[in-house]
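Board notes, transcribed. Complex of a protein with zinc ion.
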Amino acid sequence: MTVRGHRRTPGRLLAALLVLGLSLGVTSTAWAGPGRTANSTVVDSTGQPGRTVALTFDDGPNAGETSRLLDVLGTRDVRAVFCLWGQHVRQHPDLVRRIVAEGHVLCNHTMRHENMSTWSPQEIRANLRATNEVIHDVVPGAEIRYFRAPYGAWGRTPEVAADMGMQPLGWRLSVRDWNRPGTDVLVQRLMNGISRGSVVLLHDGGGERAQTVDAVSRVIPRLRGEGWRFTLPARTG
Ligand SMILES: [Zn+2]
């Protein structure tokens, strides 16, 4: 090959990269991070084989339980997803900083837990954007990887969230912890209900959640003892 040929190769490479960049640019609104894109599929599993499970906590941060939950997760070396209300982020910025500093993953759960099932994409986008802005005021640059619709009332939120780079995040197991049925009952429901790859819905906010934190504290070592591994939900559907 001639010297001239050698020179041309990087040029072609650049051109190819440019084309790749342009094609990605077309879908840039769905860009969710290095090498990843969000899509409108509601993720409800870890996407990993074997005994894997992902814990997700909604409606915080909450002055009562979030801090204790973070202690439990930190001691047990478990990473989890926190689906935050923008309003609660404003009230408890230090807890949000702690969530991020301790390696957990953020999820947009709207400003005030709005039911968006009948909202237009424009209305949804405005709320989700405002929520992300509130979060980024507190933790600038932090990745907000997921979106979860309050009440599971998805409406048109999955397409809007995906377009904003957030993967819609559902769940496979809910133990209805908001009813506070007792820690023993919650432990039993978790132990019986978790299946391979489950995303588990729990709550650290929206009310008093001491039972949830106690149940999580008891369940983590038991599940590990049975060979379960704690991980995060799949990044895309
Ligand atoms: Zn919620």
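Confidence is low (pLDDT under 50) at residues 1-11, 13-35. The radius of gyration is 20 Å.
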